[in-house]
Design a protein that fits this description.
This protein is α+β, with helices and mostly antiparallel strands. The chain contains 32 helices and 15 strands. It has an eight-stranded antiparallel beta sheet with strand order 8-9-11-10-14-15-13-12.
Length: 822
């Protein structure tokens, strides 16, 4: 039983058993959606009318529903927006007593109430001062009392709205923009606010207000259905949570989907996103029309005066500037030329879209709808002109997005690229992702447009960017599925066989560079050779490098950094060398650096850990970029100490205590020349890349002191980490999936590769290190990658004698490590 049922079963019933009837109505499965909202409004009307009549109201008074209640759209937990309207002739005390007789029963039932008591003049004056009040009064509906008084107010308020439209509509537009900036876009949010986010119910209400002004009107196709779907989702949310909430939280989505009879939470989100996209597109078109009309009105008197003075007709001239064949600019929009014949010109939709994006102009609603309705389908494969116009459209940068959205709203995109339908409005559950799959693909092309100077084939880069995640609409590995789809679509677009293969390869391996660079040992020749084999040519490597950056930048701020950029650039340089015929250096033969040897000598001489801590920066990956744009990518921490058990968990634990995030760790044993007079025995040198979570870096002396204590057992790291986590508990939310440890497929002859996927948490690497020490394996290097709340740690391990682990032993180690992390 929901909290709504519990609360309402214990309520005092109002006149006519309103509480019981309301409860019964809300849980009638056969009546939902608009019929239930209307029935709930009618039931509430009857109850409030009864309260009004029982209070013996004086003459010249009316009870009025405004806002959503005025529209008879009551959700289970909606506020009751009520106005007690009086003509001023009745005694004020009598009106106040009447208000109390109505308001208090509502409060007694635990219903939210937004109320006011005003005369028509007061209501009109308040509406003039407060835009939200004015919007609510546009939907005023009489419930009881003097209906003529309400009708007169409605007429006056509506006339004021139309007369004041040139001033009020820009105010409403600004209000909508501020709300969108604050709440985000509903069609891309994992936990959207169905009412306040852009494309939500508030924007739908704003479109009604614009239509009421008679100044402009919204595109009506699909708008009513979009509003209904959002209202249905809000109803289900109220019923499943028992609260007056509009935020579709992750933990509520499965229950809301079941309440609506949908397959799952993803289906719910996709329906919500589609509705929001319809409202957002209508909002863009409507406000563009409002601004155009207001601009024309402000210019008309001056133009009429100028033209009349010259003997003109008083009508301003209409300028039409040619942009492309069959495409012109008129009044700040891209429209079709008078001579355009879409039914004979199959390339016209792409040509018009490319011209609009290149000119950074919106394509008019009339033009895109005419193209959708009458344009001749493109032949397959496309002619060269169509392919070139698509590339031009994708290469226009940020201006591509609104034009693409216009094409998508009218179904042109799915007609050109049939596989687009599977990714349209598809949610991405990974919080690292900012966008839905389809918008992410367009954003990747936008990012790639700024990288076209770095590749020999910009056209292949832009198309690969548009298609790289196209496989997410299919089951299985999206890169594998995407390769097949990209091959088909590239052939459809008209690329030759060689280019089709390049695009398909880029889609198949679009994650290869970043995953290898952040999760594999780049000093291992097998790592570099495997990438070179997959890529095949320098041209494809160049393409993948740019695509990797564009993809990460379009994913979200957590997906790309100077650190990742530097690692990918290093990998690309090494792979390019192999493709050019160079042999990767053998890391076993590489001598320690001068600094590593100096620290090793000192550690062997003193018998204690020594360390060096220094900032590390990288130049921008793009050689054309300004060198001042470089940023620190972390700190290099080099530690040398006599080889002994427990080094990895001790160092990792100390770093976690000092709030340092580990990005990579390289561990190697250094045998020093015997003629140095420093004693004997191997020295372990650890080269770490770390970054401060926040604040400044700790002093090297403090790190060293804590490391000494951790190694001799006087610093209980697990207890300290547990204390810190207890002092700063994480917010309650979804339960994280369990960790997963696997033996990675790698051809390394240096070590066995173990991959750990787990929830990121302070001390994770410390816990991994303890488990590996208990398993008596040696860690050669560790590579840490974190995306959002997820960590992927790759460990290169060997037996104590430096040999690889046999397959069965490696699998047992993975199981042991997974069990320890649980």
């Amino acid at each position: 039983m929901t909290s709504l049922e519990v609360s309402e079963e214990t309520e005092e019933s109002g006149p006519g058993g309103y509480a019981a009837a309301r409860l019964l109505l809300l849980h009638e499965k056969e009546r939902s959606g608009p019929p239930r909202r209307t029935a709930l409004a009618r039931l509430t009307d009857d109850w409030l009318s009864g309260l009004f009549a029982a209070a013996a109201p004086p003459r010249g008074v009316a009870l009025v529903a405004v806002g959503g209640y005025g529209r008879a759209e009551l959700s289970p937990r909606s506020d009751l927006d009520l106005l007690l309207l009086h003509d001023g002739s009745a005694d004020k005390a009598a009106v106040a007593a009447l208000a109390d007789r109505i308001w208090y029963p509502i409060w007694d039932l635990g219903l939210a109430l937004d109320h006011s008591v005003r005369t028509p003049a007061e209501a009109r004056a308040t509406a003039t001062e407060d835009l939200k009040v004015h919007l609510g009064l546009l939907d005023a509906r009489p419930l009881a009392g003097d209906h003529g008084l309400v009708a007169a107010l409605r007429t006056t308020v509506l006339a004021d709205w139309r007369n004041q439209a040139p001033e009020r509509l820009p105010e409403l537009d600004e209000l909508c923009r501020e709300r969108a900036e604050r709440m985000g876009e509903l069609q891309f949010l994992l936990e959207p606010d169905l009412k306040e986010a852009r494309g939500g119910l508030r924007d739908a209400q704003a479109l009604r207000a614009v239509a009421a002004s008679w100044l402009a009107d919204a595109p009506r196709e699909g708008l009513a259905d979009a509003r209904r779907r959002l209202l249905d989702a809000r109803d289900a949310l109220h019923l499943t949570t028992g609260r007056a909430t509009d935020r579709l939280a992750l933990q509520e989505q499965d229950a809301v989907a079941r309440e609506l009879g949908l397959l799952d939470a993803d289906t719910l989100l996709r329906e919500v996103y589609e509705a929001a996209r319809t409202i957002s597109y209508a909002t863009d078109v409507t406000w563009r029309e409002v601004n155009r009309v207001l601009k024309a009105r402000s210019a008309r008197p001056r133009l009429r005066s100028l033209l009349s003075g010259r003997g003109g007709t008083g009508k301003p001239p209409v300028e039409r500037t040619p942009l492309a064949e069959g495409v012109v600019e008129m009044d700040g929009e891209v429209v079709l030329a008078r001579t355009a014949r879409p039914e004979r010109d199959p390339v016209l939709p792409l040509r018009a879209a490319a011209a609009a994006a290149q000119s950074a102009l919106p394509i008019s609603l009339h033009a895109v709808r005419r193209l959708a309705a009458t344009a001749k389908p493109l032949p397959v494969p496309w002619p060269a002109e169509a392919r070139e116009e698509l590339v031009t459209l994708l290469g226009a940068g940020e201006a591509t997005v609104p034009v693409w959205e216009a094409l998508e709203a009218e179904g042109i995109v799915t007609r050109l690229l049939p596989d687009w339908e599977r990714v349209r409005c598809r949610p991405q559950r990974n919080p690292v992702h900012t966008w839905t799959v389809d918008r992410h693909l367009v954003e990747t092309a936008v990012r790639a447009s700024s990288l076209t100077r770095r590749v020999g084939r910009p056209d292949l880069l832009l198309v690969a960017a548009l298609l790289h995640d196209i496989g997410k609409g299919w089951p299985g590995d999206h890169s594998v599925a995407g390769e097949t789809i990209a091959r088909d679509l590239a052939t459809r677009i008209g690329f030759d066989r060689t280019d089709v293969t390049t695009i398909a390869t880029a889609v198949r391996h679009h994650l290869l560079l970043v995953e290898t660079a952040t999760r594999r040992d780049l000093d291992d020749p097998a790592t570099v050779r495997s990438v070179a084999t997959a890529v095949g040519t320098v041209g494809t490597l160049e393409l993948l490098h740019a695509l990797t950056e564009a993809d990460a930048l379009a994913t979200g701020p957590a997906a790309w950094s100077s650190w990742r950029a530097s690692l990918v650039a290093d990998l690309v340089k090494r792979v390019a060398g192999v493709l050019a015929g160079e042999t990767p250096p053998d890391p076993e033969a590489a001598a320690p650096s001068a600094e590593q040897e100096r620290l090793a000598i000192e550690a062997l001489r003193t018998g204690e850990p020594v360390l060096a801590l220094r900032a590390r920066s990288e130049q921008p990956v793009d050689p054309e970029a300004d060198a001042e744009g470089s940023e620190p990518v972390g700190v290099e921490l080099v530690i040398a100490l006599p080889d002994q058990p427990g080094v990895l968990p001790a160092v990792a634990g100390v770093l976690a205590l000092h709030r340092l995030t580990v990005r990579a760790a390289d561990l190697r044993a250094v045998d020093l020349p015997t003629d140095l007079g420093t004693g004997t025995g191997p020295v372990l040198v650890l080269d770490w890349r770390v970054a401060a979570e926040y604040g400044s870096l700790p002093e090297a002396a403090r790190l060293r002191a804590d490391l000494v204590r951790a190694l001799d057992g006087s610093l209980d790291i697990p207890a300290r980490l547990a204390e810190r986590e207890a002092a700063y508990p994480r917010r309650r939310g979804l339960t994280a999936p369990p960790p997963r440890v696997t033996v990675a497929a790698a051809d390394s002859r240096l070590a066995t590769v173990i991959e750990v996927r787990a929830q990121d948490a302070p001390g994770l690497l410390h816990r991994i290190g303890r488990a590996l020490e208990g398993a008596e394996v040696r860690v050669r290097s560790a590579h840490v990658s974190t995306l959002g709340a997820n960590a992927v740690d790759t460990l290169y391990v060997t037996r104590p004698d430096g040999t690889l682990l046999p397959d069965e032993e490696a699998i047992d180690l993975a199981r042991t490590l997974e069990s320890a992390l649980r």
